[in-house]
Amino acid sequence: MDVVDIDAAFERFEETWSPRLAASLNGQELKVAKLEGAFVWHSHPDADELFWVIEGDLTIELREEPDRHLSAGQLGVVPAGVEHRPVADGLAKVVLFEPAGTENTGDAEGTGRTREVESLED
Amino acid sequence: MDVVDIDAAFERFEETWSPRLAASLNGQELKVAKLEGAFVWHSHPDADELFWVIEGDLTIELREEPDRHLSAGQLGVVPAGVEHRPVADGLAKVVLFEPAGTENTGDAEGTGRTREVESLED
Lengths: 122, 122
Description:
CATH superfamily of chain A: Jelly Rolls
InterPro entries (chains A, B): Cupin_2, Germin_Mn-BS, PKS_Associated_Protein, RmlC-like_jellyroll, RmlC_Cupin_sf
Order of helices and strands of chain A: EHEEEEEEEE
Largest sheet of chain A: 8 strands, mixed
Region (Disordered) (chains A, B): 99-122
Radius of gyration of chain A: 13 Å
Number of helices of chain A: 1
Domain Cupin type-2 (chains A, B): 38-96
Distance between the termini of chain A: 20 Å
Oligomer: homodimer
CATH class of chain A: Mainly Beta
Protein name (chains A, B): Cupin domain-containing protein
Number of strands of chain A: 9
Shape of chain A: globular
């Protein structure tokens, strides 16, 4: 059983919008990501996605509903199929929880923003 | 999309060893629990279980391996089928992540410690 220190995990990489794998269980993955600025609009057709803000502030823009604002210590789940755009005003440290294999850009193609999930050791 | 504030979630109940449901996604559940003292030895035959300590300290005793100590900001996954006993020295606020329907006492019967997972609104 590995022990993961969340603060230390965020110290191991600098790249924004490139989630790192922190833990795997039950076919799901816990990832850590640094977010800054606006991402691309996308959805995950088959995956609910949990955002948990550890540090900073994150806005989840939604096409069909008002934006949601998450501060440090707050989390929310974007349901499968719901188009969303995460926007961080400044640097935000965020934990993601979603099925293994979920791509960061979901169904959005040709954005140049798709990243493989790297392990924290890379 | 509901926004859950983790600190506020822990303010909504006092009972120890009785997880509350904070979020559901992909057939999994994020629960918050207050732990104090020693729980019962048990395993979850089909469920990996993530422990994430938000406040306090938690020891995960394992039959076949050295104990693991988790402080605030640290997490670990107990694999399915691995017998374990959580022990909190003082009050620990912990987030659990596991498949929906996972019982707190797993395969341990007759302990008197099994609790239904209540919603935070109860």
